[in-house]
Amino acid sequence: MTNMMNIEMMLKYSKVQSVARKVLNEIAFCINENSTEASISSDCVKLLRKYGITETWYYNVPALVLLGSRSCLSISGKDYTPDNIETVGRDNLITIDLSPLDGSIWGDCARSFVFQKGKIADENNYGEFSEGMSFQKKLHREMESFVSPETTFEELYFFANDIILSNGFENLDFLSNLGHSIEKEKAERIYIEKDNRRKLSSVNLFTFEPHIKIIGGKWGFKHENIYYFDSTGRIKEL
Questions:
Q1: Angle at 205 between CA 147 and CA 11, to 5 degrees
Q2: Is the CB of residue 95 less than 8 Å from the CB of residue 65?
């Protein structure tokens, strides 16, 4: 049924992914009105090092930060350079995508942060910000309800994109995919994309990471987790 990873390896992946989540929680306290993509990226690297992570698997980009006018930008890490001019200011959106590496073990986790009135907003009810953040949570819930070990990458691609469009959003990804398998080498990744008819359970771990915006809107939202199927075939977040 599922391509099960042994418990020891699963714990190693879980540990690295846990570091990524900790860093994303802590970076919120580092962001201020004068922060830039470059300074936020630098702070993420410092926090990763605090937890013993000094490498990345993603084109030497441990933290891909997109801020404000670039929040809708979809770009490969091989072409990415953090901007050091635009600052966060009083109200903004910041997306941070972390790609930690510990030996051969990957983590992959992204979050969008709403910055309002000079600080990260714990709760927000401010129009487009609120809609985008809420819809990302809905997308992940819908994905978890839909998939089974027999679901193909292509089936998830069409399912998620249909929900995105029917709710008034658009997929911003430059390749139109919604995630990928977790591998040992970047080139070995397979994607949640059209024509990929492999089953989700054919890989041990995969990401779900829609990058979306409201059609006609200003902000690009991203929320990424790693998922797997347990021994009963139930989807789980790593």
A1: 125
A2: yes
Query: Any residues with CB less than 8 A from the CB of 163 and at least 6 apart, and which?
Result: 139, 142
Q: Do the Cβ atoms of 35 and 48 come closer than 8 Å? A: no
- Specify whether the CB–CB gap between 105 and 13 falls below 8 A: yes
CATH domain 7-237 topology: Creatine Amidinohydrolase (3.90.230)
3-state secondary structure at position 111:
strand
Could you give the CA distance from residue 67 to residue 222 in angstroms, rounded to a whole number?
Answer: 12
Alpha-carbon distance of 112 to 68, in angstroms, equals 11
Confidence of residue 1 (pLDDT cuts 50, 70, 90): very low
pLDDT beyond 80 at 141: yes
Rounded Cα–Cα distance for residues 111 and 108 (Å): 11
CB atoms within 10 A of CB 235: 18
